[in-house]
Amino acid sequence: MWAQALVGPGRFERTEPPRPQADDLGPGQVLLRTVAGGLCGSDRPYFLGATNPWRPPGAALPTPGFPLHEVVGEVIASRGAGLPAGALAVGWATGFDGLAEFVVTDAESLWVFDPARFDPVDAILLQPLACVLYAVERLGDVTGADCAVIGLGPIGLLFASVLKARGAASVAGVDRVDRSAAAAKIGVDEFTWSSSEAWSADHASTYGVVVEAVGHQTLTLQHALAVAAERARVFYFGVPDEHTYPVDMNALVRKHLTLLAGGTLERRRMLEEAGDHLSGHPYLISSVISHRLAMSEAQTAYDLAFRATAERLKVVLTAD
User: Fold this and answer.
1) Residue range(s) occupied by CATH 3.90.180.10 in the chain
2) Which of 86, 98, 143, 175 gives 93 a disulfide partner, CB atoms 3.0 to 4.6 angstroms apart?
3) Which fold would CATH assign to domain 129-261?
4) Which residues belong to CATH 3.40.50.720 in the chain?
């Protein structure tokens, strides 16, 4: 089979590793033929050279298919419930190794969808949308809340859509890249083209719900705490690059804040809910997905995805 593999920080080469077979599957595992993949900010540190935490001890380098975890694929073989051969499924490549012709992943991290309902490539958006829906579910009732999203990349735009759909009174967004066009499509009430540091100084203790959707740095979390109003809820979204973050405990204590973080549990349920949300908000596809490239163009796609420009939002890969 074909696969892309990192042979150095930020550098891919095509390889031909052995194809996984149905007999290789463990309980609850599924073999997919990859149809599409989506690039996510949590792939960025690994693309740039961070250690692969999913690589088995003693396994050879480079790891084929790494790093890519958002995947759409055709079920080739399954030892998991609800995933018959021939079905199309969307979800997680749980080994972050989806940049390959075939991938083995966990059945509970997939949801079978109807291709008459979603184009298989567009369906890749269901995976990050499921993550956002789970985060907002954990935030609780946002009806009537003034909300803010720091970082209006693909994830931040999805947060804005879901918060509005859940009854937020208003959603403000800030980004150092001019996201005004995308923000208007999503329905962001107030977009500020600025650093979050400068913006937070002008909006101290303003918002009842704040989402930090930037990641890959520590200061933006402090800006989220600064703009949070008394008794506000703050969600730090994503996988932290650093194990330890400085936190303004005075703000947490004095303003009686609630700080949440975490990944997505109940993945199949959330993917199904994402299907319902995307059906009701189909404009998200054209508003969030900006580029589609073949998996043979992985180098170009990753270089593009992790370079901040106004034109670049979600980058999607399609099978060769």
Assistant:
1) 3-113+282-318
2) 98
3) Rossmann fold (3.40.50)
4) 129-261
Q: What is the pLDDT of residues 179-236, one digit of tens each?
A: 999 999 999 999 999 999 999 999 999 999 999 999 888 999 999 999 999 999 999 9
pTM: 0.96
pLDDT tens digits along 43-92: 999 999 998 888 877 777 789 999 999 999 999 999 999 999 999 999 99
Q: Which two tokens stand for residue 174?
A: 């800030």
What's the rounded Cα separation, in Å, for the pair 135 and 261?
Answer: 8
Compute how many other C-beta atoms are within 10 angstroms of the C-beta atom of residue 47.
21
CATH architecture of 3-113+282-318: Alpha-Beta Complex (3.90)
Cross-strand bridge partners of residue 245: none
Q: What angle do CA 61, 63, 67 make, to 5 degrees?
A: 135
CA-to-CA distance for 184 and 189, rounded, in angstroms? 8
DSSP code at position 134: H
